[in-house]
Design a protein that fits this description.
Elements (H helix, E strand, L loop, with lengths): L12 H15 L4 E6 L8 H14 L3 E7 L3 H8 L6 E3 L10 H11 L2 E2 L16 H5 L12
Parallel strand pairs: 1-2, 2-3, 3-4
Length: 147
């Protein structure tokens, strides 16, 4: 949960519940429509604990659907052993198609929805990104050092 680089990638039961309650309170809602884990946990052993807590939040009505982002097929299988995975949000665009063979095939077979992450390749595919514009991106723009 949280953003990569902005926080530790934890998926303990306590961190999942705390972040869900913070999100609900911050948005002024009782239920989150789709609650996704953005990154697999740094501590791999937390995957089952965290996913079980997400399943509990769903049973309690705090989340209508639970999904993942940036998970491998193996990680999704581990989660599915506890509770269904509703969605996968992988980096996917015309220039980043690595998920097609394994992850998308798995999602199709398991009826897991797919939400393309960075479908326009962070602006590259919009037609507005030129070499000049890329060269003039601010120094702190994360896209600047990207090939």
């Amino acid at each position: 949960m949280g953003h990569a680089g902005a926080s530790v990638r934890k998926l303990t039961a306590a961190s999942v519940r705390r972040e869900c309650e913070t999100a609900c309170g911050g948005c002024g809602v009782d239920t989150i429509d789709l609650y996704q884990v953005h990154w697999p946990p740094e501590n791999d052993a937390e995957l089952e604990e965290g996913w079980a807590e997400l399943a509990a939040l769903k049973r309690e009505g705090k989340a209508r659907w639970i999904g993942v982002s940036n998970f491998s097929v193996e990680q999704m299988k581990r989660a599915q052993a506890i509770a269904p995975v509703t969605s996968l949000q992988p980096p996917y665009s015309l220039v980043r198609r690595g998920v097609e063979a394994e992850a998308l095939t798995f999602c199709r077979k398991e009826h897991i929805g797919v939400i393309g992450l960075r479908a326009m390749a962070s602006g590259l595919l919009t037609g507005a990104m030129t070499r000049e514009r890329a060269a003039n991106l601010p120094a702190d723009d994360w896209r600047r050092p990207q090939p």
